[in-house]
Every structure is written in C-alpha cells, then in structure tokens.
Amino acid sequence: MNHIFSDIEFVYFDLDDTLWDFSANSPISLAHVYHHFNLGKYAPDYDTFRNLYINKNAELWNLYHYGKVDKDYLEVERFRYPLAMIGDPRAADIAFCAGVNSEYLRFLATLPTLVDGAEAVVKALCEAMIPLGILSNGFAGIQQQKLRSAGILQYFKHIVLSDDIGVTKPLPGIFQAAEKIADTHSHNIIMIGDNYEADILGANMLGWKTIFFNRKNVVIPENIADYTITSLLELI
C-alpha cells in the first residue's frame, strides 16, 4: 500500500468508528442518560430503550446524510421517539428531549476510547510529514472534544464538519470545501473512512483516493475504493 501515499499531500479521516470508537463509547453514554433521567421508571428494561434509540438514530442519520432532516430535528427526535414508545409522558416536552440529547452528547464527548491502532497510525503519518484532517458529519464542538478526550487533537491540521459547512457527506459540497481548506488538488488527497457510502463514494466523486476501513466486514459489491482494510494498523 505504500505507493498510494507517494503523491499524497493531505489525508482526511472520518472520525466516528474510524478513529474514535463510537460503537464502544455510545452505549456507555446512552446508559448514563438512561439512569440520569430515570428512564427505567417507564421502560420495561434498558435493552428495550436502547434498541428503540439505536434503530431510530440510525434511521435519522441516514436522512441527515442526504439533507432530508436537519440537526435540530435529529437531536430531539432520536430521544423523543423512544421516550414516547416506552410511555414516558416527558416525550411531549421538546425541551426535555433536547436536554436528554445535550447530556448524552456532553457525556459522550468525554469518553476516550479509540479504535485499535488509531493513535499509532496518526502518529506515524505525522512523523512522515503528511498533514492530517478530520472530515465528519458530526457536530461542532462535540467532535473536537472527542479528539481532545482521546488525546489526539494535536495531530490534526484541519477539522472540517458538516455542521460548519452546511453540507453533509456524501454530498459533493463538503468534499469541495475540504479540498479548498487542504489547499491542494483532488488527486493529492486521500479519504479514509468506515462508511462506504458517505466516505468512499462521496470522496470518489471528487477524484480523491480512498481507503475503505471495513471494520465490520460488510460485503460491498463492486467496491470502488483504492484499498480496503479491516485494521487501521494495515496503514502502517
């Protein structure tokens, strides 16, 4: 794989589940709000609430990727819906649902767990004098705090977020903005991410090189990524 970096002048990483382990950290934060807001008073058990949240959150993020719902709706609805389903009367209070979301995000951003190999990889690329950036659909402030909590914020020259740009991956606008911020040509940028549609297809449309981090071993027919890895350490 070494030659793929030979003409690269900038590397963009996705953040959640590419470097910062969202799959490990999110359940901890979800359990925190479950107990913090005494949701067990209405839910038959934690697993019921968790599954309702996970399914609704995934549905909403898919819509958000394509601009079909906005951030404010996503943040409230992903908690309003499971609260309503468990019969919590506070689901009718939009301010309460927004407060649950705020506490979830606040606590989530304090958690430090990285994907295996993440710190070693970003350190190795920095030592090779390759500038790094984050290109994420995550929310402003929260993504920076995740990097800070995990101790890797200092490795990144630019943090490009859909929340700031106003366009989400995989739409071309956010990649165009990121390319301008990196101040280099499309063929000199590489995108590394775990979401095939958002990261790989989106970057490919702009002519970027791509590395698909297939962490969950998803079967992708006609995979167009330049390389596919199942461990970040393969980058080294």
Any chance you could write out the topology, listing elements then pairs?
Layout lengths: L9 E4 L8 H15 L9 H20 L5 H15 L8 H15 L9 H10 L4 E5 L5 H9 L7 E4 H4 L6 H11 L6 E5 L2 H10 L3 E5 L13 E3 L7
Parallel strand pairs: 1-2, 1-4, 2-3, 4-5, 5-6
Helix pairs in contact: 1-4, 2-3, 3-4
Write a short abstract of this structure.
With 236 residues, the protein is an alpha/beta fold. Helices cover 46% and strands 11% of the residues.
Report on the structure:
The protein has helices at residues 22-36, 46-65, 71-85, 94-108, 118-127, 142-150, 162-165, 172-182, 196-205, and strands at 10-13, 132-136, 158-161, 189-193, 209-213, 227-229. Strand 4, helix 9 (196-205) and strand 5 (209-213) form a beta-alpha-beta unit. By secondary structure, it is α/β, with parallel strands linked by helices. The mean pLDDT is 94. The chain has a six-stranded parallel beta sheet with strand order 3-2-1-4-5-6, sandwiched between helices.
Considering the chains and any ligands shown, give keywords for the structure.
236 residues, alpha/beta, six-stranded parallel sheet, 9 helices, 46% helix, 11% strand
